[in-house]
Amino acid sequence: MTSGAAVGTPAVFDPVRFTRQASRAYTRGRSRIRDVFVDVYTALLTAGTIGALAAGLVLALREQVALAWSADSAGRTLVDPPSFSLPDGAAPTVLLFAALAAIMVVARKLGPAAVSGPEGYWWLSLPVDRRRMVSGRLIRRLVLVWAGASVLYLPFGFITDLAASVRGQFGAAAVFGLAAVCAVLLALLRQVGAGPAAPGGPATATPAGASRTAPGPARRMASAPLPGLLLLAVLSFVPRQAAAGLWGPALVTLAAAVALWLVGRPRLGDIPGRDLIRGGAVSGHAGSAVYLMDPNEVARALSADPGVVVSSRAGRWYAKGGRTPFGALLRADTAAFLRTPGLWVRPVLLLSLCMTLLLTGGRQPVPVQLALIAATVFAVVPALGALARRTAIMPGLDLLLPLSLGVVRLSRTALPAAALALWSALFCAVLVLLGAGSPELIALGALAGVGFGASAVRGAYRVQPDWTAPPVDTVFGPVPTAQTGAMIRGLDTTLLALVPLLLGLFLGYAPGVLLLAQAGFSAVCVLMVMYSNPK
């Protein structure tokens, strides 16, 4: 060999490509064609069945929406539309904005850029550019968000946009999918703006090719929540325009998604490693909870917020202690309840959303408005059971207290019941101001709130469904009674406390008999929390 001969350079080892190839080879080796065929067949059969049922529901709801929005519609309503004229499609636009804002919030809790635990500890400690490590999963998430949002928009668009053609509805669905992608990318900008990773550990080692400069004022403003909400508010108007055949705003949406990606993609390497691992852990936790159909675990997974500062609220009052064991426990539960971060965010937002839909939805029939109020209540009640869900993780600790289990549950119920009584009274007060009925409905709502608080605690102590129990044969076919009984725990008492309230709203006033019935139903809910068997 001569001295001028070329010397071959060794191939560069790519840990990301090697890990993914090995993972795919392992998955293919353990998968059989028969299992894949059964899974695909089951998925297609399920999708076809759900689609057939959804089609009938969509057609029925289109008739109700057409009746509510017709100019000559007459009939009694709980809340009359405002005297001034609103633009067409105000209520659907509000719902789209709420959906996009929810997507952005949930995406930030899940990352959106994330790695699993093993990937984080194997990859992030290497002195290589970590952008390739996280961009693949992020792109897959963006594609899934676009597809899921587009599919879910179709029934919504057919129900709320009666004048659009079928082609326009599919175009609007694709545009709404792009708006959902923009929401996820806004969450990515917030994740990028969380701060540079600090050196000092495997999860936060500085990779090669990644900058570690502090973000400037423009980037900090771009990662703030207010500009993102303003952009989502603008994008919530675009799907209906696309359904009408105006594709200029749709191109603006596409340009916004591309611009957000071009801004966030180069700074993927600046995301702290601990945030990437946290996003992967939350994603895995939430995905497993959804697979097992456990709403409590979903709420626990999504309630984790590392940026929240520990509160010392009610510290002096808690330090005084209690004279009795029940007083001490009630004082501790009160302090913990007041220190729970973001406790009133969901109740306040859903109350505002419900009132907005009642005002902008046209002359809706009374059953439709009552159904909207009931849906709001069912969505708000679990939010006030956040503290009880934490204590339910270790139920054996309640047995160590020098109190009976029923008294412990009563202490857990006190603060959620008081908070939901206040929320329900405020809800009914707003309805009374809008002309829904007499002021006695405020007292009716406060009494119903006590039952709602008990339902929040009852649902928080819901046991996981036993999927090993066989279904029971009935005249309607096999019914999984064991699983159904565990999943409706908490929803049953919410419905029990909600019936007198809906009856009072339907009548427009609350007679004394109805107030007594509401107090009795709420007392039954509290007793069910205290003395019902958790199994």
Structure description:
This protein is an all-alpha fold and 535 residues long. Strands 1-2 form a two-stranded antiparallel sheet. The longest helix has 37 residues. It is globular, with a radius of gyration of 27 Å.
Structural features:
disordered N terminus; DUF6297 family protein; single chain; membrane; 535 residues; transmembrane helix; two-stranded antiparallel sheet; transmembrane; mainly alpha
Explain briefly what this protein structure is.
Keywords: Membrane, Transmembrane, Transmembrane helix. With 535 residues, this protein is mostly helical. It has 23 helices and two strands.
Strand share of the residues? Answer: under 5%
Which value, in Å, is the CA radius of gyration?
Answer: 27 Å
Q: What gross morphology would you assign?
A: globular
Q: Tell me the total number of β-strands.
A: 2
Helical run tally: 23
The oligomerization state is single chain
**What distance separates the N and C termini?**
81 Å
- Poorly predicted runs: 1-6, 195-214
The helix/strand class is mainly alpha
Task: List the helices and strands in order.
Answer: HHHHHHHHHHHHHHHHHHHHEEHHH
Q: What's the pLDDT, averaged over the residues?
A: 79
Helix residue percentage: 55-70%
How many strands, which pairing sense, and closed or not: the largest β-sheet? Answer: 2 strands, antiparallel
Query: Which strands sit side by side, in order, in the main sheet?
Result: 1-2
Region (Disordered): 199-219
Transmembrane segments: 36-61, 89-107, 138-158, 170-189, 221-238, 244-264, 343-362, 368-388, 414-435, 441-461, 490-507
Keywords: Membrane, Transmembrane, Transmembrane helix
Protein name: DUF6297 family protein
